[in-house]
Design a protein that fits this description.
5 strands, Nucleotidyltransferase, domain 5, five-stranded mixed β-sheet, about 130 residues, alpha/beta, 3 helices, about 35% helix, single chain
Length: about 130
């Protein structure tokens, strides 16, 4: 199973490609405020580097948090959109071993279908005015 991994909870973002549990490529870069502009380019670079096609991705593992509100929102939105459009199974995980846990979930046939962020604290969003 070709698996894409994404982590965007901090200024340094990470993308990996795995064939089951075998790492094919992994990159981290200082995305900071350019995450939305660079994430798709970095995904494409990793696919081209390994000679893989996006439409062959069967699973996506995304770091679900806790972390930056904006970073998690961007990364999880990209992961959910890719999972829905490909279609591919998706797993959102946390902790130091987030990749291993996510890959194991996918390889055992689990699919969250929609990952929600875990910010680690209440989100302070302005309430809509009526």
């Amino acid at each position: 199973m070709l698996i894409l991994t994404l982590r965007t909870d901090k200024p340094e973002a990470e993308i990996g490609l795995y064939n089951d549990k075998e790492q094919l490529s992994y990159i981290s870069w200082q995305a900071h405020r350019e995450l939305a502009e660079t994430i798709h380019l970095k995904i494409r670079e990793q696919l081209e580097k390994t000679g893989k096609d996006l439409h062959k991705v069967q699973g996506i593992v995304v770091f679900a948090g806790p972390g930056s509100f904006t970073g998690l929102r961007i990364g999880i939105t990209v992961a959910n959109a890719l999972a829905k459009s490909l279609p591919a199974a998706i797993a959102g995980t946390t902790g130091d071993d987030w990749i291993a846990k996510g890959i194991e979930s996918l390889l055992t046939g689990q699919n969250q279908e929609l990952v929600m962020p875990e910010y680690g604290a209440p989100v302070h969003i302005t309430q809509p005015k009526h």
